Q: What sequence folds into this?
């Protein structure tokens, strides 16, 4: 247990402070522990910090709760992934409003090569259930991680289909990890931890208040390469997830539904307004996104080795896509993003995110003309 860890947990538990403000505080003070060591005059000068927040920090009211929470997490096998940690999900790290910490319980690789967010209405129809189960079945050859919200309807259908077919899945919660909501999904949440995880940004004991669900939806969008909306009314949490996905430059697909069906109006409207691509099959979506199946990846890796192109051997500790990018730059020197996309077969949207992550890690540098080079 380090002072910095406790300080981070205390900041999260301090009322009125969100993830953006916490980053601001740490940036100005030099660390989470230094925030609590700062005096009133220094705190009040930090943008976004008012009198009430500064006095709350000086009182360290959340410090004891943070220490208690740390001990409970250690006892119950809850992993804390802080945004400064190497294991923190890379897809979230580049987002301006990413969570300061992810509380995670289970066995999962958040940096899986392909991730799909599946969302939809709680009042799912038989059509919606069948479509969701079909999507999961068709995703299996692509070795994807499926992300959803553990809610009634489309979410739980997706999670349970993943469990049945052996596909890893993550349930992002609007509560603390010790407050399973809805309670009826507790057994499923336990089963998910064997090949997946449950995750949240909320401290232990947090109740699923109404306003926490939109924040939960941004994490689903942020963890996903692509979001598929199965069924949605004109208004609902799924459409909030879509808004976040678009802000984060994620791909969005929507399953069309029957005209006059209120539970398909949201999906049909997304397609009509060009806010989502029409979803028909996973194979067609994979073609759009230039995804490869597990067998194609093995074949391409073997061919790359024959051509003296060995990203995984040259760059240990990186994903296959990251290794491929680094190997391309090592071989070709400065490269434009379009050339990298063509040579690697990685979709431009996904490639831009990968390049940003590698830049944050100090591996590459961006140059004028959309060019990149190794450092």
A:
């Amino acid at each position: 247990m380090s002072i910095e860890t406790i300080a981070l947990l205390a900041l999260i538990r301090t009322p009125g402070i969100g993830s953006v403000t916490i980053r601001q505080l740490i940036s100005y003070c030099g660390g989470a522990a230094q925030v609590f060591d700062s005096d009133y005059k220094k705190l009040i000068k930090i943008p976004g910090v008012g009198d009430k927040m500064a006095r709350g920090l000086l009182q360290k009211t959340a410090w004891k709760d943070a220490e208690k929470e740390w001990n409970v997490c250690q006892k119950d096998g809850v992993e804390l992934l802080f945004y400064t940690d190497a294991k923190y999900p890379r897809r979230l790290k580049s987002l301006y409003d990413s969570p300061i910490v992810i509380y995670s319980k289970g066995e999962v690789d958040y940096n899986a090569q392909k991730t799909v967010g599946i969302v939809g209405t709680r009042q799912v129809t038989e059509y919606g259930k069948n479509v969701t189960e079909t999507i999961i079945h068709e995703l299996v050859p692509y070795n994807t991680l499926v992300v959803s919200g553990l809610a009634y309807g489309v979410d739980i259908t997706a999670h349970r289909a993943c469990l049945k077919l052996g596909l890893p899945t993550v349930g992002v919660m609007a509560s603390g990890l010790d407050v399973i909501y809805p309670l009826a999904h507790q057994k499923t949440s336990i089963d998910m931890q064997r090949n997946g995880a449950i995750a949240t940004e909320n401290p232990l004991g947090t109740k699923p208040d109404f306003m926490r669900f939109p924040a939960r939806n941004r994490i689903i969008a942020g963890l996903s390469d692509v979001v598929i909306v199965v069924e949605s009314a004109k208004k609902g949490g799924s459409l909030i997830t879509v808004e976040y996905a678009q802000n984060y430059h994620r791909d969005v697909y929507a399953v069309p539904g029957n005209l006059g069906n209120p539970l398909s109006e949201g999906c049909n409207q997304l397609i009509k307004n060009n806010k989502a691509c029409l979803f028909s099959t996973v194979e067609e979506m994979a073609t759009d996104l230039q995804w490869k199946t597990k067998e194609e990846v093995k074949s391409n890796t073997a061919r790359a080795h024959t051509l003296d192109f060995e990203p995984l051997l040259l760059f240990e500790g990186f994903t296959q896509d990251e290794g491929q990018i680094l190997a391309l730059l090592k071989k070709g020197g400065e490269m434009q993003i379009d050339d990298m996309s063509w040579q690697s077969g990685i979709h431009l949207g996904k490639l831009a995110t990968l390049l940003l992550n590698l830049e944050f890690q100090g591996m590459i540098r961006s140059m004028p003309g959309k060019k990149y080079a190794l450092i």
